[in-house]
Amino acid sequence: MNGAPNNLADQLPCYAEAFSAVQAFGALDDVLWRPVSHGTVSSSRPRYGEHVLDACCGNGASALPAARLVGRRGSMHGVDLSAALTGEARERVAAEGLDWAAFTASDVTKFPVPARCFDLVQCVLGIFFLSDMNAGTTSLIRQARPGGRVAFTIWQRGAIFPVGECLVEALAPFKPALAQQWDKQADALINRINTAETYAAWLRESGLENVRIDIREHGVVLGGTTSRALVLGSGFRAMLAGLHPAQIVEVRDRYLEILMQRDVMSVDATTLVGIGKVAR
Questions:
Q1: 64 in a domain, yes or no?
Q2: 143 lies in some domain
């Protein structure tokens, strides 16, 4: 799950480290991760007895509702780079007695299971963190059995954007080159396919059939705590890499001030859930 897409940083470890901040990540559960994840599961519709792969599963926000639906006759396996978040997900399923759900800390594109063995592969706000989005998405599709389904969720164009824009401005005294990198994001693949029409076309080009796009509207009201959590509990946290604690405090204060100056009281968090069928 995410903030900024991967091309803004050359090294995936920055993002793995960012998502290891379990407490900060969890601070967004109620306002962002859970509503977005439940929207995806409402679209992906796991069925009783199915076997589900939840890629880039984080702390289990979408994996747990999927596990509840597939029941004991099914299985749910969550995979995420963050050992800290998958550890929390294990605790959550253990607390509910969902012993048919398992979690692995791994690169999901290198997950050592036989290909084409899942009825459903879902990934909430994760495909744009894959080192190669095209190849990584194809790898996930190959995990679904012939006739199976995939459901990949991305941000709709403009969603969450003000947070990143204000953070980049706040970071300018310490990372002046970041603004140029941010501007280049317009050319990134994820920002060329983040409308319902372009996303559907890309999924069809990826080999999926019967593609549909569900638009899941959501918004986040900002306040001091939530505004900070949208940075510290998401992929935006990677932008702070290399800063000293005192610099991070200064960036935080500048970021909150910029939000106020621009009168940013809430942000759109609408997602596009792309669902498709794997050819038999």
A1: yes
A2: yes
